[in-house]
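With this grant's support, we have settled on a layout for protein records. One resulting record is reproduced below.
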Amino acid sequence: MPTKYFTPDEHKRVREILGALGEAAADIFTRDDYRTLRRLIAGAVADGKLPRDRYGINPVVHNLDTALTLCEMVSADRNMILSIMLYELCQKEIITTDEIARIWDEDVVRLVNGMLKVATLYGSHGVVKTDNFRKLLMTFAEDIRVIIIMIVDRLTLMRAINHHPDEKFVADTAFEANYLYAPLAHRLGLYKIKGELEDMSLKYTARDTYTRIARELNATKVTRDAYIADFIAPLKERIDATGLKYEIKGRTKSIFSIWNKLRRQKVEMKDIYDLFAIRIILDVPLEQEKAECWKIYSIVADMYTPNPARMKDWLSIPKSNGYESLHTTVLGPGEKWVEVQIRTRRMDLIAEKGLAAHWKYKGIKSESNLDSWMNNIRDILETADGPMELMKNFKMDLYSNEVFVFTPKGDLYKLPEGATVLDFAFNIHSKLGCTCVGGRVNGRNRKLNYKLKSGDTVEISTSPQQMPKLDWLNFVVTSKARSKIRQSIKELEHRSAELGKELLMRRFKNRKIEIDEGMLMRTIKRLQFKTVTDFYNAISAENLNINDVIAQYEQTEREFHTDNKEHTSAEEFELRTTDERDQESGDVLIIGDNVKGINYRLARCCNPIYGDDVFGFVSSEGVIKIHRCDCSNAANIRQKYPYRVITTRWSGKAGKQFTTALRIVGQDDIGIVTNISSIINKEKDVTLRDISVSSHFGTFSGHLVLGVSDTSSLENIIRKIRTVKGVKDVQRSN
């Protein structure tokens, strides 16, 4: 290769890498592979097609370093090494995937394509600090080997940027390594890589802290190793005497782990309880596990003073994630605290590879399917010969039922498979969904029902004239979108019904017609409307002429009074007592001196129902109107017209339904109106005749018109409505 392309240090490093790589990959890398790659790379360098990136990183040196690190720290296969070297050439269009397939095979193409897809993701959105980005990354990678290459690639980059002049670049790379790649490395059992990534991340983001901890550890390394040996030696003698098979491991925490402790517990390094940690692992049968663990604990506690506050018994009651172990912190020689973990080989296997891997019980979030899948991969990494050959059949389909979509600002959202532009709009905000008319997906205009794919960047287009439509329910897939569409349509219907009702009431008032609720219900039924809301919506939409409604109302009223009019002559009229008429009449009101059967109307101002305290008032039309005693007009009537007030009381049993209204105030929660309606519909002696709802700044107020038989049924339904979540107050409104 042209030597002027490399600095002297880089040229020296390339020669070292090639020599080491030749030894590490001798069994899997052929001479033809080497010659072909050398020719392609040398030609690209000579043509100036492999320049340094914007941060000054030499791609040839970096890729060679990554290939060597992969061989040293992971059992890499031939195709992984090839893909590392070919990826940059393919990205710069020096070689095509068809040529790669012809020279090598489709498996190399698959790896290169996975790396190219991940590169496009980074190129569009840079560092993304969300859990969804990790999922999208794994979806794009498609092959587990791509994830392993990415982890090693990041390790190589982290090693190369120590003292890099671009501080922001270093900080972003360090954050990403710690947030994204270190947890993935741990899940795959690449513990050494994970530890190095974490330590370097701390070094680049808090160099003074890292240096201070490192100096303290280095200054005490010999002393610390000797201390661990001194601590273990007498323990080994006592445990050997029991005849048990066991293994003892001593360790000091990594710099990153120590820093985590210092930061979380706000203590000095000398005060960290488990700076020294000893793990005793027993080889015993399943039925003897607990007894033998407690036997070892008694030996430890007998030799060293335990701290009761630091005792953790996960033998008797394992953690919910399956973790089993016995932890104690004891005061060792020199008054230093040492954590001792006692477990069996089976427990250790579960803790390291099963449900309770170290990364989980330290608080890193994960999904159960990812845990199981990653553990299977780790088993192959640790037990199989040539494990990367077995990885070819592993597909990254963990999140095949999800899509991950970006906003133009780079925010990332997770949606179910099949989600549309409209689903995305509702996921951002309900108002955005209700006014959505389409969107721009990756710069191209798309309709509401366009199905999104992972990695799409979506910009929503809106219009203030847009309103939710029923046919939207045919293609949205998210429950949030479906519920919001239904709720919005209902609200539109309620507002439309309110307008229709207002128009009708105004026309009745202009015609000086006093509306009787029962008569109006008969008219609505006569016009063949199933619900009152449908009736008022028809008026609002001008599908029903108000004059025709009034004509039908008057006709219904005339027919009703004609059918119920009594034809009695003056000679035949006889004033009957209460007891006599109770047997023949269904009347429930006694007016005056125990007289029933007198023509009366229930006042519209207070809508009395059976059980209310009432009085009669002879109106100017000569009709007796029945008011509640607590009616807002009662005091004025009694003061001005005391001679027209007639005592009135209820008689017999309530048989018919009376109209009354309720006012409800509460939080504007999803489904609250449906819950209220459901409670009313379940009551046998209560009917819902009308409902209107309005909302403002998260609070809603509603008016219900009910048919009830008496005050007890009204009080019962009010109590039940008050139990609905979100309802703050329920009052009778008339």
Q: What stands out?
A: DSSP finds 28 helices and 20 strands in the chain. Residues 17 and 65 are 7 Å apart (CA to CA). The two ends are 94 Å apart (CA to CA). Confidence is low (pLDDT under 50) at residues 124-128, 353-370, 380-399, 565-586.
